[in-house]
Design goal:
The complex is a heterodimer of chains A (115) and B (107). Chain A is mainly beta. Chain A contains no helices and eleven strands. The chains are: A mainly beta (115), B mainly beta (107).
Chain lengths: 115, 107
């Protein structure tokens, strides 16, 4: 499969649960991103990984924990979330940030609902 | 600091009418500006970038450094243009998006 694939597409979890979102890209990119999309703040940058190293943590609460085991995979581990964390979580990839063209390729998102 | 402002959350125009989606930015360095679009049930995707100076799907955008603006324009709107549009600014560190404008084209 080509492009950026996110799983699961929908996730419902309680505040005490631990779950993970997965993102996979087959575009040969070496930078990956997590964005949060909600009604209040449509596109908030959460984390940036370049060459598997975290280069940006945009003041995200520690209940969100990213992991980038290789340049093709990105995870977002979720633990003790709050209802206000309910949102669409978008993964994106691009060529290395240092020479990035500004073109990000987005996945379809994982719709998270926290009860 | 990088900041992108899209003053209109919602914009509604009739088919065939001109469209202008506003975008203003704040950045101390040399900016690179982009427009992204998200059609219903589709993923967010790049529409155009200012350095290309191209017209995509009839849309154009001109970077005006004096007014720090990058408005998106189309002379004759079509129903398939209905979507969410995001202006984005690439600075030294990251790509920052505006709040988005939902464009609705009425038949």
């Amino acid at each position: 499969e080509t492009g950026v694939t996110q799983t699961p597409r929908h996730l419902v979890m309680g505040m005490t649960n631990k779950k993970s979102l997965k993102c996979e890209q087959h575009l040969g990119h070496n930078a990956m991103y997590w964005y949060k999309q909600s009604a209040k703040k449509p596109l908030e940058l959460m984390f940036v990984y370049s060459l598997e190293e975290r280069v940006e943590n945009n003041s995200v609460p520690s209940r969100f924990s990213p992991e980038c085991p290789n340049s093709s995979h990105l995870f977002l581990h979720l633990h003790t979330l709050q209802p206000e964390d309910s949102a669409l979580y978008l993964c994106a990839s691009s060529h290395s940030r240092g020479v990035a063209t500004g073109e990000l390729f987005f996945g379809e998102g994982s719709r998270l609902t926290v009860l | 600091a990088q900041r992108v402002t899209q003053p209109e959350k919602l914009l509604s125009v009739f088919k065939g009418a001109p469209v202008e989606l506003k975008c203003n930015y704040s950045y101390s360095g040399s900016p690179e500006l982009f427009w992204y679009v998200q059609y219903s049930r589709q993923r967010l995707q790049l529409l155009l970038r200012h350095i290309s100076r191209e017209s995509i799907k009839g849309f154009t955008a001109d970077l005006n450094k004096g007014e720090t603006s990058f408005h998106l324009k189309k002379p004759f709107a079509q129903e398939e243009d209905s979507a969410m549009y995001y202006c984005a600014l690439k600075g030294a560190q990251k790509l920052v998006f505006g709040q988005g404008t939902r464009l609705t084209i009425n038949p």
